[in-house]
Fold each of these.
Amino acid sequence: MRNLITWCATLVFTVALFAQGFDAGTEVKNASSLRTYFDEKAPSAKVLPRSILLTFVAAEDRDFFVRHSLRSPITTYLARMLLGQNYDKMKAPALSLIISTELTKDEILSLYAMEVHIGSGCFGIEDVSRAYFAKTPQELTLSESAYLASAIKKPTWCHPLRNSDRALKRQNYVLSKMQNAGFANESAVNLAKSTALTVQDPLGGCEE
């Protein structure tokens, strides 16, 4: 049954690509190419700290682990990011279905972290952690991770440098959601909220 669903989604996705004018730059064209694309990212994705991934869940979809992946905003956003300039309303649901049937939840979340846009032309947690904190993702504190995750929905409105007050408020909101979801304990959250952050100019690591 799973194979049939994946096949149907791939068929719809392929038809949509050709209907809109196929772009050879689209790396993910079917279930097989999605798996290949993930495997290329896997060495980096597999070493991402769990705490970082959970800040994304708290910020974007608290119910990610209990709802069907297809219904998750995280899956929808990942499909949009993978499509890039090929995005349209017909392709996105088909690719979301391929993602939800081909990848596990942990794989979806890891790939999301590697692709997510967090403002200032930064794509993926590796680039953004270097740009804003001059650190690898493994070196980020809970406070820093939540600070970055806070900017996902509105990168400009919550820009860590241009709108630092808004970003801090959103950061505290994400941290509270982490505590409520059981992703972090009260002491860790209180420490993260009280920790002063030093954010550097992201233009050194990402192009605007």
Amino acid sequence: LPISLAQLSDPKVLAEAIPDLKRYGDNLQVYSELVLAGPINIIDIPPADGGAKPAAESKPAASAERGKTIVRPASAVTENQHRFAFDVPQLKIVVAIKPEPAASIWTPCAEFDISLRQGAHPELVNPTSLTRAAAVVWDDKAQIDVKGRFAQSYQANDATLDVDKLKSLFDAGWEEYIHGGPSAQFELPDLDLGFTKLRAMDAGWIAPKLYADFGPAGVKLTNSGDKPLIYETKGPYSNWGGPYTLKPGATHEYPIAYPMLFRHPAGNTYRMFTLPSGSHSEYRFAGGVSTLYQAREPAEIEAERAKVEAAAKEAERVKTEAAEKEKEKLKEKEKAVEELPAPAKTEPPK
């Protein structure tokens, strides 16, 4: 529960919104309940200019390397983008009290009617390099209105209700709730059409639906080695193309929806692979061989690096510890030699 919302059950904090509670002193207990008293509606927020959101487009990246093409959406998150809002007109905060902890029942004290409207828009995210999802990105501020009243059975000595104070507490708690945790998102799986694969390229909203644009899933090659990779490629109906050179640390991307044949020289022959659409392969040294492997995710690479660093630190620790033990042994030997009795002096025979 967000800290700000939890304060709605703190007698001292809530007494700032309901001053009459101060007369009960330190023994007062408060029970606050957030109640959804009506439906949650999803409404459309048209763009400010009334224009339609452009579709995704494919643009070649500025690169001297052949075969380097990036697919990027033409749309951007702006104030003119189609957006939607969660409209919750019937929220309530119901407050009950116990003047003394020993009281057997909670006494209804006050009710606050809350109207909430939270704007949002969908955004395409990459959970991994090969997966896509649509995330709900919340607007910075929600529209919140609050009205309050005492319970009919409650007799207040001070009839004041500071709804602005309660609104600020609820607003802070709501902001903490929607912006303090992970974003709400749902997976957009690739469209697998046999040998052809399409992947989500953009996500948006046009009332009354969320939508996703799909395009070629593509083939990606990364050179994780320390030497240039020379290779050739071939499509289902094309001849071999190339040779292409992939520099260490560089990546080539092919925006295609079909498998691609790949080969690279290995001595007097070639190593050949079929790279499915939607795959990401990396050329690296492993198991005594430099060849293509399924690309690792950044988190996997970082975990491997951390493992290597930890092993190196442990080896250094063991080495240092062994050296210290050798020093101790040497000191003990030197001390033992010093403690030996001096040889007795003898007179030479006359």
